Amino acid sequence: MNVYLLKDIEKIGMAGEIVKVKPGFASNFLIPKKLGIIITAKNEAFYKSKVKTVEHRKDIISNKTSMLAEKIKQLTLTLKRKTHDDGRLYGAVSGVEVAELLAKAGIGIAKNQVDFGKSVKTTGSHKITIKLSSKLKPQLTLKVVSEK
Q: Domain 75-146 maps to which CATH number in 3.10.430.100, 3.40.50.300, 3.30.70.1660, 1.10.357.10?
C-alpha cells in the first residue's frame, strides 16, 4: 500500500515522501495518528506533484543543515561545573546546558537533539553528538572544567 507521509517517521520516511508500507501498518498506525494519507488512483497525480515541490524544499534545507553541521563539527564548548576533589561532577551534564552553550555560539537547537551516548559525569573532553536530521549527526567537543 502506498502512503503519502505528512510527518517524518524514523526508519519509514520523511514528510512529503510516498512510501510503500503494509496495509495493517497504514490503517492501524499511520492513518489514525494523521501521519499519512493513503494514495489512491484518484489522488495519485496530486500527491506525486506535491512530492516534487517537497523534494526541492528538502534540497534547500539539506544545504543549510549541512553548513550548520560543518559549523558544529568545528566547535569546542567549555562548561564550568562544581566538582568533587577527584574530578567527578556533582551531577551529570544535561542536554539543556549544551543547548544553552550552543545558543550562545549562535546555533539554536532543542535539548532533545543532544545525544551524549554515555552520560558526562567527569571533567575532561567529551564527544557529544547533535542530531540535526536522521542522516546528519555532527559531533562536537565539550570540555568540562572545575570551577575551582
A: 3.10.430.100
